[in-house]
Fold these 2 entries.
Entry 1:
Amino acid sequence: MHNLALAISQKSGYQITGSDDEIFEPSRSRLEKAGLLPKQFGWFPERITPDLDAVILGMHAQKDNPELLRAKELGLKIYSFPEYLYEQTKDKIRIVVGGSHGKTTTTAMILYVMQKLGIEADYMVGAQIEGFERMVRLSDTAKYAVFEGDEYLTSPLDPRSKFHLYKPHIAILTGIAWDHINVFPTFDKYVDTFRQFVDLIEQDGSFIYFQDDANLCSIAEHARQDIKRLPYSTPDFVINDGVTSVIADGQHFAMCVFGKHNLQNMQAARLACQQIGISAHDFYTAISSFKGASNRLEKICQTDNAVAFKDFAHSPSKLRATVEAVRLQYPDKRLVACMELHTYSSLMADFLPQYDHCMEKADVAFVYFNPQVIEHKRLVPINPDDVQRAFATHNVQVFTDSAALQDALRALDYHNTALLMMTSGNFNGVNIPDFATDLLVPGFIKQKKLDNRYMRMARIWAENSYCTRRQVGALLVKDKMIISDGYNGTPSGFPNQCEDENNVSLPYVLHAEANAITKVARSNNSSDGATLYVTASPCMECSKLIIQSGIRRVVYGEQYRIMDGVELLKNAGIEVLFSSDK
Ligand SMILES: [Zn+2]
C-alpha cells in the first residue's frame, strides 16, 4: 500500500492521506520522507469526509474497520488496491504477467527492456527490482502499464483473484503449479482462476502462454476466438564456461541469467515486447545485461573454483527449476543444495508429496524445517521421515535444528562446488550471504568482524577533525597492528577551517587517508601490504596515493558522491570493501 501511496503522490493534482494501526520499516521512513506518514497510528473515522474522491482499501482491512464503515456510510467510492490500479490505467495498454512461478522475473524483464529502450511504463511488481526505485509507478504520460498479476485473493472482503481486476490487452501465463492451498483447496479450483483470467482479456487481446504446460494449452484451446494465441517454449541456447547464450536468428546473445526457467520467462517477455513493437534483436541486446529479480539465483560469492547462490524458492516447481538450473549451468561441479520448508503451504502434510524428486539433481540435498513454526502456524505436525519420504530421493537429508544444519554444511568440502541456499526465510536466523561466503572462503566472517571493529575505531578517530561539515577518519593496519592514523584537516599555518561559507571543502584541506599515508612515510614503518580503513570512500587523488603506497586492501564506510576513486583502486587490483556496519 505504501508503494501505491508514494506512486500516486508523484502524480500532479492528487492529495494522499493514509491510516494504519502499525507501519514498519522501510515503509515508515519512505512515507516520512514523502510527508505521507500519519501523525498518529490507528483508525480515525473523522478523517473520512464527504469531499474525498476515493478510499483505497488495503488487503488486510477488516470488515468492521471504523474508517471503512464511515466511508460506506458517506457513500464514498471504495477501491481495492488492484481495482485502483485498473482505474488509473484503464486508458492504457495493459500487460499482465500471471502464473504460479516466474511472474516477478518476467515482469522485471519486460520493464528492464522497456526502460533500456526508453519506453515509459506504469507498473506494479511484487518485489523490489534493480534500477527501479519503487514497486509501483503511475503516471499521466506512460502509454503502457505492466503489472505482475497475482492469483491470490484481493482481500478478505473481496474473494476475487487480484489479477482478475486488471483486464489485460496482453496477458502472460508462465505455468500452473498448485499453490496457496489454503484458498484454493483443490487443483481444479486453482486452474479455474487462471481460466477466468484469460476470459477477462480485452477484445482482440493477446494470450502468451508456456506451451509445455498441458493445463495452459487446454485453457488456450478453449479461449475466446478473438484472442490471439502466442505459445512459447525454451529457446535454443548454449552454455560455455558457465555463461549461457541464447541463439536467435543465428546470432548468439550472452546472458547474465541462466536456467531453463529463466530462458522460458525471457521468451514470454520477448513475445510481450514484440506485441508493442520491439524487435527480437533489440530485445535480446537489451536483456543481455539483466541480472535477475532480487532473491532469484542471486550470486553471493564466487571463488576460482566454487560459486554460491541464494534463491527465494520454496514451492516445489520453483525448487525443482532452481536446482536444475544450477545443475545445467555447472555440469562439472558438485551441487550442494540446501532448502527450508518455510511457508504455510510448504509445511502442510497434505502438500508435501508435491516435493517428489524435486532435489534429485543435487549431489547433496539438505532440507530444513522448524517444528516451532509448524506449531505457531497451528498446522498438523510433520516429522523428518515424512519429509524424507516426500522428496523420495536418497540424497536428501532432513534437519529440524538449524545449528545441526549449519554444522553439516560446515563439514563439507567446497572445492569445485556450486552451493545453493533456498528459502523465503533465513534457516532460523542465519545471515545467508555471510554464512555461504564463509563456507567458500573460510575465515570470511572472522575477517568481517575484525574489519567492522577497525572501522568503528576509524569513526572515533574522525572525531579529532575540526571540519564541521564532514569528519573523516583513517587507520592503516598491518600485521594486526595499527601503524598509522589520520583525519581530515588543514596543514599547519592554514586557518582551522575546512569549508567555505557554502559548505564546500577548501582546496588546502588534507584528506584523512593522505594524512595517514604521509604520516607512516615519516616513520620507520611501511604501508606496503597494509589495509586502509577510511570512513568515507577515497577520492581520485587519494586513490592514486593509496596505489603508490603499496596498500593491498581498502575498507571504506560511506559512499561519497563520486566513486571514481574506488573504481581506480579496483582496476589497480586492490581489494576494496564497503562496510555498511555502524
Ligand atoms: Zn581524498
Entry 2:
Amino acid sequence: MSESLVVNEIYLSLQGESTFAGLPCIFIRLTGCDLRCSFCDTAYAFTEGKKKTLDEILAEVKRQAAPFLNSKSKVQNSKLPLVELTGGEPLLQKNSQPLMQSLCDAGFTVLIETSGAHDISKIDPRVHRIMDLKCPASGEVERNLFSNIAHLKSTDEIKFVIGTQEDYDWAKQQIAAHKLDAICPLLCSWVHPLAPEQQSKVLKKVPAGLTPISRKDLAEKIIADALPVRFQIQQHKIIWPPEQRGV
Ligand code: SF4
C-alpha cells in the first residue's frame, strides 16, 4: 500500500465519550480541520503531524492492540480495543476511507468522530459514525451539512456540544424538527472550559449575547424537558488533567 495520511498521534486510552464510553480504545488523531469551534480542545491537531502510510498506521494499531489479543470477551458486541478516527476532521483526508475499511477488515470495531460539515455517506457502513451537529456557541453552526441526517443509521450517534442556553434550545429544536431520536442515540456534552494553554487565538469567539449554561443546569433542563438524549461527561477530562494529550 502506498497511500498515506498525516497523523498527529496514535494512542491507547479509554473512550471518554459516546455510548462506548469507558471502553479501551486506540485513537488515531488525523491532522487538519477546516472548522475553528470556539471550544476546540485539539487546536494542536490543526497543523502538527507526520505523514504515515496505511501500512505503518495499521502496524501501529495492531502493536498497541496486541496485549488484548488473548481476550475473547466482547463488550457491547465489540472486540476490544475499539479504534477511533478523530482529529481534527478525519474526513478531510481521502485516505481515511481506505484506512477505515482496512481496520474493519482486520476485525476492529471502528468509530469516527466527525464535525458534521462533510459528506458521511461514503464511509464504510461497518463504521460507527459519531457526528456533531454544531450549536450556535461553536461559531460554526452554519457549517452543519444537514443532508447528512438522511444517511445516519441506528448504529451511528449524533452529538451536541452545549455551552449556552441558546445551544440547548437549538439542540432541542433540531431533535424535534428532524425527529433525531428515532434515528440513533443522541449525546449531549457540556462545553468543558479550555485550559489557558488550549485557548488558541485561531478559534472562533462565542457569538455575543449568548447566555452560558452550567453543567448542572444542562443536566436539570434535560430531565425537566424529558429530552431523549444521553447526557455525557468527557471521562478523560475527569481522570486526567483536561489539557493532557494522548489520553
Ligand atoms: S470540528 Fe471543531 S472541535 Fe472538532 S477538531 Fe475541528 S475545530 Fe476542533
